[in-house]
Amino acid sequence: MREVGTLDAPTLRRAMALYAQALEAHREEIDSLNVFPVPDGDTGTNMLLTQRAVDEACAGLDGAPIGTLGDTMARAALLGARGSSGVILSQILRGLTEGLDGASGVRWGEVGAIASPEAAAVILVRALEPDGAELLTLYLGEGVSDEEGERVAAALRESQAHLEIEVQRGDQPGSAYLIGME
Fold first, then answer.
1. Domain-by-domain residue ranges, the chain?
2. What is the pLDDT of residues 150-174, one digit of tens each?
3. Of 46, 51, 137, 177, which residue is most buried, by most CB within 10 angstroms?
4. Distance between CA 93 and CA 67 in Å, rounded?
């Protein structure tokens, strides 16, 4: 029996199926948006095709541990990614599932630790890094401590060793972090 407040493999599997259904229902609406990085009118279609690859890869994994499910999700999303929006989705799923190895379930409060600010920043930079970038500036928003900013910067330095990473106080309201690359 599943413990209340725990994200287990069956719940995660169901969430992936529901997400594919939601993308199917809203594909045309998402396609109509002019979105970054390429306003090409197929963002919803590409996200749907990527998520379908995840859903299909996970279909035969009933009863598998959550770590196995997470690994399968990340791999299927990357290999099935369509367009830049599919690649970005694959990186988000990778970040979400990265900490699931060896777990039987994750308490909901720990899901945020898996998808931490450090993981979110690394995912964003991996997905959107412009060719030839040499410098990444991390601007800390209003209320973000220097210590927290350094943790995010350390994660970026580890994943992006080729970039010089600098941290600046931006104190911008409404955004914990802004990232600039040049």
1. 6-112, 127-181
2. 998 998 888 888 889 999 998 887 7
3. 51
4. 13
Q: Which amino acid is at 47?
A: M
Whole-number Cα distances in Å, 97 to 9, 38, 90, 105? 11, 26, 11, 12
pTM of the model: 0.59
